[in-house]
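ok, trying the design again with the full structure, not the truncated one.
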């Protein structure tokens, strides 16, 4: 239950961050549909974030009853690194969520950086937070960058799927080409920081392939690779079809693109769940 809560929480933050990042890159306006999506992502992040420390209390106490004991939860929140980080993150989420629903407030830089802080702070819990000194700081920084790059990539996919059904073909091609250039940078950061984090927790190829932790990590890498293949198909197969003048070819390109984006998103959700399991697993190193 805890892993599922963490995965949904991370996915909601990524969707929130990805939609905001895509809007900033495209320079698009903020419509009612986008506002509803941002509000939904914020609400899910807020609710799962509120549930998290109760479930965490049960795991730390090795007693399911502790999950519903307010005194035990208070101990977790005030006397652990997880609790202090959670309090700061939940405060950021609350402020960002309030700004998203207030009718007189716009989604500006303040909210964007609150969501950045909320997502990046996930690097400061779990095994990543246990490192000390310069090496520990470097690992946490790499993980925070990994989360933000992954969030900007995976989190943008729902918005792109909606745009793929709404925009005219010519406008959609411009959006896809712009996101494709932006996406190359994101994938590079995801791969580089992922490699740093994986090596910091394994240290040897034998540990990577010969342990349960390593196998979970390899499964995650495999799904990321499939996501990359879907992205390549979007760029090299479906986008060129949308650029054709033939309406029949355009329609086929649009249909293929939406299916590919849906598959890419499903794979991304699988990656998030595996990432949570990897973060909770005991590393060989």
């Amino acid at each position: 239950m805890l892993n599922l809560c963490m995965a949904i929480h991370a996915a909601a933050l990524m969707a929130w961050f990805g939609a905001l990042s895509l809007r900033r890159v495209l320079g698009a306006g903020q419509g009612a549909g986008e506002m509803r999506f941002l509000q939904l992502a914020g609400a899910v992040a807020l609710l799962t974030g509120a549930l998290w420390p109760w479930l965490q209390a049960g795991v730390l106490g090795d007693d399911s009853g502790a999950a519903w004991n307010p005194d035990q939860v208070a101990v977790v929140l005030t006397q652990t690194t997880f609790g202090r980080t959670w309090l700061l993150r939940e405060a950021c989420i609350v402020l960002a969520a309030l700004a998203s629903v207030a009718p007189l407030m716009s989604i500006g830089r303040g909210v964007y950086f609150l969501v950045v802080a909320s997502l990046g702070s996930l690097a400061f819990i779990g095994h990543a937070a246990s490192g000390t000194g310069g090496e520990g700081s470097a690992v946490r920084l790499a993980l925070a960058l990994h989360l933000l790059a992954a969030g900007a990539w995976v989190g943008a996919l729902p918005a792109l799927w909606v745009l793929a059904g709404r925009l005219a073909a010519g406008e959609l091609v411009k959006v896809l080409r712009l996101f494709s250039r932006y996406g190359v940078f994101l994938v590079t950061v995801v791969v580089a920081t992922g490699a740093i984090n994986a090596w910091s927790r394994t240290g040897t190829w034998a540990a990577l392939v010969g342990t349960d932790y390593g196998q979970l990590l390899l499964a995650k890498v495999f799904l990321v690779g499939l996501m990359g293949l879907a992205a390549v198909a979007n760029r090299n197969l479906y986008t060129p079809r949308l650029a054709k003048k033939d309406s029949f070819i355009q329609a086929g390109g649009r249909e293929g693109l939406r299916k590919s984006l849906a598959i890419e998103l499903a794979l991304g959700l699988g990656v998030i769940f595996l990432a949570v399991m990897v973060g909770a697993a005991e590393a060989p190193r």
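Keeping the full-length input from now on. Residues 158 and 265 are 7 Å apart (CA to CA).
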